[in-house]
Amino acid sequence: MNYLIFDSDIYYDKAGKTGFCAKDKIGSVFGAEEEFSVAIIDTLQKQQVAPEKPISKRDEVLAASFSGEYVTQSERIAPNLFQVIAAEKTKIAEVYKHLGFEKVKLLLPYGAALREFLKSNGLFAQNKKIVFLDHQGNQVLLTIFNNDLFTTPRRLSTMVKRLASEIVRSEENYKALNKDKEETSFVIATNSRKIADEIVLSGIEVKENIFCFSESYPALTGLKQGNFTLHYLLPEHFIRLKKLALLKKWLFNFGILTAVLIAFLAVFFVSLKTNEIAHKRLENLRNKVVSANKTLEEAYSVKYKDILRQEGKVNLSYFIESLINALSDSYVLESLNITGSGGRYKLEAVVLQKGEFQNFAKLTLPNIFKEVRRENILVKGIPGVRVTLDVY
After folding, report:
1. Which DSSP letter does residue 213 get?
2. I need a labelling partner for 256 at 20 to 30 A (CA). Which of 5, 60, 275, 344 fits?
3. Of the candidates 387, 266, 376, 232, the residue with the CA atom closest to the CA atom of residue 324
4. How far is 296 from 285, CA to CA, in rounded Å?
């Protein structure tokens, strides 16, 4: 941040280095993207009574303190009493024209910045009115402070011999304007040792009542130290800022709406994907259950038939029929012998392949032949299988 006093020339503090330059040379001192806190010298002050609430009524009364040629800022100095500080619109417009609206972060009265410097140095603890003589380039600025109240800075010549009479004149005018019935005490402060010595030599003030500071630009120091609420804006700036605020609000609301929509879509698609996965899992489980039920049903059927067969008489025709049905087109039943009696039988079958030169095909038998004994044989050059099963 750069700190400026904007006058016929510009006095600046850039990174702790002070100096001054002409207005048309400001581009050679500061970069295009640098920002500024600015104090302007020529302001008018007025004490105005106004209601503190409602705020709209208070602002209306304070704004009417000066004509439309001025822009105003105000400070509360007592209950229902305000100091209104006005600056010409043309001077405010000149500041923004040279520096740029976006780069001016603070624009306030010179007196407010200088007041902050005096407070930080404990001068208000004197409980006296302060006459400050600010030696600034080719002029001396005389400002009188009464706590938070300050006067319009008077521009004086740097001729030291004439300053004593100007101080006396300013103090008398201040007493007359403020109608002080009691004796008013002043202390004098300056940033020039030469001015302080001349005041002592003139006899208008003793050395003990004079404070001398080494700062070249005390107002710039106060501008850096203070936490200010004053800031001059032109009417068109208020309109611009209002439009910008509305735009930011719209963008903010749009951003919130977009975020909510994105969150909703994300939840929707995650839920959709989750449901799809759950559906697939449920379908797989259902298929497994159907398959298991079918397998179990087949097993129960076979077991049931086996139980019936075991509890009843031996059904040889069932075994013969099962064996014949199990033969594929590659086999033919060559012979079948059944021996035994009394419920115990031995079934012996010879099964041959239909062709002599066919590839050997596996013979698959039903579960009732699970205890069967197999023997690969060769009958008249044709491969076959002898199947032997004890039935009881």
Report:
1. -
2. 275
3. 387
4. 16
